[in-house]
Amino acid sequence: MDKRANVLKALVGIGALALLIAGAWFGYRAIGDPAQSTAKLPAAASAAADEKGDDGSAGTRADANEKAEKPSSNKVPSFTVSEPSGEKRTLESIVDGKYTLVNFWATWCPYCVRELGSFQAAYERYGDRMNFAMVNASDSPKEVNAARAYVEKSGNTFPVYLDLAHEAFANWGVRSLPMTVILNGQGEPVAVHTGQISEKALMEKIEQVLGQE
Prior knowledge:
Blueprint: H1 2-26, E1 39-40, H2 43-51, E2 80-82, E3 88-90, H3 91-95, E4 100-105, H4 110-126, E5 131-136, H5 141-153, E6 160-162, H6 167-172, E7 176-177, E8 179-183, E9 189-194, H7 199-210
Parallel strand pairs: 4-5, 5-6
Antiparallel strand pairs: 1-7, 2-3, 4-8, 8-9
Helix pairs in contact: 4-7
């Protein structure tokens, strides 16, 4: 019993440390369901985050790993991604002074796929008041092709971007999916959620954020 208790305490301590690191960098209010479902990011994109010097800690199963140093402006690091057509976009051009929802996803992540319908519903309801950026992991040629095929066949109309150079995932230290962040017009995070989010929780958080305008 003592051994099991010690193991449990260690796991709780690791989880608490991960949350402390995440909170220190983002300064976020967690959103959504207490039971979060995430999928580990494959080695290709995770390695890119390591090369960028990310030193966050993963929790039980997975959670986002944020930068250890908090920028004085609270702005998230910039990145450049590509539209499925090939046109490149910077984070600044996507935000463009408006509230922006950024979701990190992949077709191989079942939790990501399950919540995409909720993001489409949110886009249809709030797309005229805030920007959306559905950033695909693009961790392999297979995933890039799958993401492009999804855009063509899904019927969803929210903007999809491909992280072909793993720049977005590396700069933000993302190691598990899905992950959702809402930025204000200055590119500062006002809410973050790791794991699958329900449509109800998503809508409530967006309403709360937009209500601050």
